[in-house]
Amino acid sequence: MLYGAMVLWGWLNIYSATYDVNQSIFDLTINSGRQMMFIITSFILIAAILIIDMRFYETFAYIIFGAVMFLLLLVPFIGKEVGGNRAWLGIGSFGVQPSEFAKFATALAVARFIGSVGFKMDQLRNQLFLFGIISAPILLILLQKDYGTAMVFLVFVLVFYREGMSPFLLLVGLGVAVIFILTLLVENNWFLYGTIAFAWGVVIFISRKKKLKRMAVITLGAFVLVGTIFSVDVIFSKLEDHHQKRIMVLINPELDQLGAGYHVYQSKVAIGSGGFMGKGFLEGTQTKLKFVPEQYTDFIFCTIGEEQGWIGSIFIIALFITLLFRVVFIAERQKSRFARVYGYSVACIFFFHFATNIAMTIGLFPVIGIPLPFFSYGGSSLWSFTILLFILLKLDAHRMQVLQRI
Amino acid sequence: MNEGRKEVIQIVFLLIGIIFLFKLFFIQVVDDRYKDLANGNAIRKEVQYPVRGIITDRNGKLIVYNNPEYDLMIVLHEVHAFDSAQFIKVFDLSPLALRELFKGFYKEIKNKKANSLQPYPFLRQLSNLDLAKVQDHIDEFPGFFIQARSTRAYTSKAAANVLGYVSEISKGQLESDATKIYRQGDYIGQSGVEKYYEEYLRGQRGVKFFMRNKDGVIKGSFDDGDSDTLSIPGQDLTSTLDLDLQEYGEYLMAGKAGSIIAIEPETGEILAMISGPSYDPTLLTGKNYSSNFVLINSDTLKPLFTRPLMAQYRPGSIFKIAQAMVALQEGVITPETRFKCDRSIINCHGPHSNEDLRGAIANSCNPYFWNALKKMLNQGKSASPFEDTRIGLAEWDKHISSFGFGKPLGIDLPNEKGGLVPSPAYYDRAYGGRPWKFSNIYSIAIGEGENLVVPLQMANFAATVANRGYYITPHMVKSIGKSGKPLSPYLEKHFTTIDSINFRIAVDAMERVVMEGTGQYRASLKDVIVCGKTGSVQNEPRPDHSVFIAFAPKKNPKIAVSVYVEFSGQGARAAASIASLMIEKYLYGGTKRPQIEEYVLKGKFL
Fold this sequence. Notes:
By secondary structure, chain A is mainly α. Chain A has helices at residues 2-17, 31-51, 54-59, 61-78, 98-115, 124-143, 147-152, 156-162, 168-185, 189-206, 212-238, 241-251, 262-272, 285-288, 300-332, 337-361, 379-397; strands at residues 80-82, 85-91, 94-96. The A-B interface holds A 158, 161-164, 266, 268-276, 285-286, 288-291, 293, 305-306, 309-310, 313-314, 317-318, 320-321, 324-325, 328, 332, 344, 347-348, 351, 354-355, 358-359, 362, 364 and B 1-2, 5-6, 8-10, 12-14, 16-17, 19-21, 23-25, 27-29, 31, 33-35, 37-39, 41-43, 211-214, 219, 222.
């Protein structure tokens, strides 16, 4: 149900974003027509997923993962270049992005590993293996220079956390992100060093169990943060020009409205002009006149913001939150650990896309090519999200058949 | 060990959702800035300039109309690379000039006077000739378009001063404009009728909205044209001027400084108002406005100075009629009262010795009016000669002011001056608190001294006498739009404090001035009784100003005239000749006295 509503709404919005008076929504030469084709093929995929025996996914998890990784490996050599990223494998006139399929493949692999007999999260060996699994697609996708999609896989850390990994890593990760941005914002790094030292002192002081190991861990954390500051310049200089600019624009949105800031600026203008009620379906001036680049893909949320206003935005956010909660609920009721971990992977991947995509359209996050699940135009991403979701539903349908293995 | 982690994850999900809602609420509902930005992005505004009202003369002859003019507008956002060599050719520019134009434009953008999203006049006032050439090529330069508006055109060179001119609104005017109607680049009436009737003439600006996409390509009208407004043309004015008479007056004034005003007494309508020297109104339109304005404005003869309204002169002898009216009204003399022409205190001219009132006016006897004013001011109401004069002067003041002297009459033209009628308070100031009495101020008896009038007030005075005691404020516009009526103040009769019966004596006396007195030779006409009065305003050491007021016919007057010709001697010469020619022209369409016309045109009056 949720899936159907989202896909349909997304389709209408793609139509609006590419609207031209003379063309029908079904016209195959425009994006809404093609999206309709993708939607229909998705139904075929769904049927296929539901027919295949549920054990297939667990049994062949590594093989699927391996196959997708192989495809990813091929991409830099035989891929087509689209929009600056070499991420496409061409099949006729349609291209597919293996990186999209890497999402569910990785989810399966992670679930399979955590779900294997005798897995204990607190063993360092297991943790390293898990990071190995997720770093494979990250590295391969980084080779394609598709930093956005590569970042998606970091969200698996949230899954690991659910399955028992210490939150320490998450917190340090968050700390690193915050410090990174602060370093760009604050001219004098000594303020930051001082703050870290102060925070370190406070944490040591309030720790009741003053064990040596704990102290060491906290100190290590502090050093990682300090290291971040040093690394900012290095990392920044290694990033490509347009990524540097996108990050700088986030920090100072007025910096470059016609250059690097153009996407965010126009996107905010479009959303902001929607007002409370929106301008009405097909009535958005910014949408219709194509001020926001790539509006039918990554910036599809602008169409909703402009034409349906705040009301529409509330509704779409509510829809996603409901979906996420529903997936978590399904995951939690699984009898097998494999299915549960997979469920959480699905939830987290959706979450990452939803959060990052909307955040970038309203200027809370740098612009990276992350589609909004089910809304953005694109076959690969629609198929990928469909596969992700429906494998979970298939597993869920058979949850009672699973023998308790743990 | 993993209890509660599900909730932590859910809380993270929810938190992000709530952050989005807040952020969206702020940018969508709270912050209005984005709506304007969106409109600036997608909507191009094109101003539709209204057509300014035209001005005709009293007989429906066109005087002021509009010529189409075209500005080349630029919308930088929509400009693509274009062939600048072609551009230079089409618009007849040098490469340097084009560079300068762009430089200027970028500077305006920097100063926030222009922006890249909305049209800005790039090249102004292309002539009709340019347009034909331009129209064929304009499509080659996306982002440029031609905007039509109009500039003033004139059928005649006459009446430049009173009609005024129109030019682009200045920065100062824009800043002090409380109505907020005007935008930079708008035209506004700067003087004369154009300024006074600006609100009627200007009409209302219309706007057309176009939608454009991100590349600046126009995608049709916005909102199906529902938000567009049509421009509303300004209202046409019917002026009170008689164009033939006006042109004739300017012809007579050629080479002289001064003014002629002709009024229809019954209505207060101004038939002609000539300010000499004048200028060609066409010079102050179109492309060369600025350079021409500088030229005209720096002319030492001050062509932009509207003498009929702004030149304040002492009234001279013509003021004697007003003196006579006041004295009669106060009962200090009768028409039969005689005073000896005793030239010991105040000089006189011509052979006369002991005239009654009519004779005194006809001969412009100075001692007579010295005596009359003395009786008027010193009526013995107080024992002190100082106090007595003060009481008398206050009374005199009241009467004189009722003729419309001493303050602007309220004509429908800007910058009218009021002249001066000395009041007791005025002399107190002038004498610095020291006492004054009649012997100090008697010059006002013969229209010299402290009195000041503008020529318009004298014409109005002639009309008042012609009307036997009242006037309607002189005005330039007879009908606004289709109303057929002037503004309401110009329908109201202003009665003087003098009884109508006393004016009859003035009329008789003025008839005698022309028949047998100082004005006879050049002012009298064969077919009609002209009533007039000469005046010579002293300007030691330069020659007098020649002044004449007149009206005709005596019964049922159709025209009242005042003429001032600067530095050209007695009123009986230049001014009387011009006045009679004007009357002749108006009543009979031309003169039968070519020798008088020639005399005036030669201009050798001294």
